């Protein structure tokens, strides 16, 4: 390990600087959490339900909309005190945040698990502390389902199947049901339930078609930059790609840039069919112009549903284990009406 050598003057300066920084942090009340409301609200105000939310990151337009839906629901006006933290895609940060929520004795913990596995210990600690945990957006893979109270999210396997069924229909309409179809897949964050589910769902349908050749599939982390990088590598390796399955719109935006730079064409009049997921506004506009052939919606507007579950729990009502939000499939045939519908994301 490399050691940095300081001379004695640098040592003293470093110590003074460190003390000044520590002083500012203590006086400034620096903490892990951002309280969305003004600081005048005290989390121990008996009338407010204290909700600790660990959001996994801010990697995509979808995630931004998901965060906005949480912040719009858990307000003081609605009877909540919100503690919010962005884990920046790191499970370790989510562990730390959840443990802080436990030590602050919040009333509810809500979190979007960045990956499916590794949650048993921290969820057992929350259960020990008697704090109900609600999963948002993505799910977890654990033996003991009592470690979380409910999930409000999406059925990702169904989303993947919708993509496969749409491709079946599209090929049939084009008279290409029996033709060899070369497919590449841009996958989201490895081990995220959205990635796992969409992959399983699409692969299930693809396995029914021996003429569908999945040439390659690579993780591109749900980001536009990685989506472009992976698509560039696919285009170099495979001159005859017919279909791109991109597991979120941000990766699609990057992939479209790469395809455009390669000189190939996309969409309803192009050589390469683009199948995307999320259906954020910017992508739906591309569906309307024919660049994206189909967008499988994944609804980020989950805050109000989570708030409803909390209200039911507060009232002692029976709740379901899983709540899936309503989701649609958008093509050029129905997207215009949706865009006129004052969509919020
Ligand atoms: C899906 C969500 C995924 C989105 C991506 O519910 O977990 O994560 O599809 C986001 O845009 O990054």
Question: What this model shows, in words?
Answer:
With 345 residues, the protein is of the alpha/beta class. 41% of the residues lie in helices and 18% in strands. The chain has 11 helices and 13 strands. The strands form 2 sheets. Strands 1-3-2-4-5-6-12 form a 7-stranded mixed sheet, sandwiched between helices. A 6-stranded mixed sheet has the order 8-7-9-10-11-13, sandwiched between helices. The longest helix has 21 residues, at 8-28. It starts with 7 loop residues before the first helix and ends in a 6-residue tail after the last helix. Mean pLDDT is 90; it is low at 1-10, 25-31 and 36-40.
Integer average pLDDT: 90
The small molecules bound here are: beta-D-galactofuranose
CA-atom Rg in angstroms: 23 Å
- The amount of beta strand, in percent, is 15-25%
Helix amount: 40-55%
Taken from the alpha-carbon principal axes, the silhouette is elongated
Largest sheet: 7 strands, mixed
Structural class: alpha/beta
Give the termini separation. Answer: 47 Å
Question: Tally the helices: what do you get?
Answer: 11
Low-confidence stretches: 1-10, 25-31, 36-40
Number of strands: 13
- Strand order, main sheet: write it out: 1-3-2-4-5-6-12
Order of helices and strands: HEEHEHEHEEHEHEHEHEHEHEEH
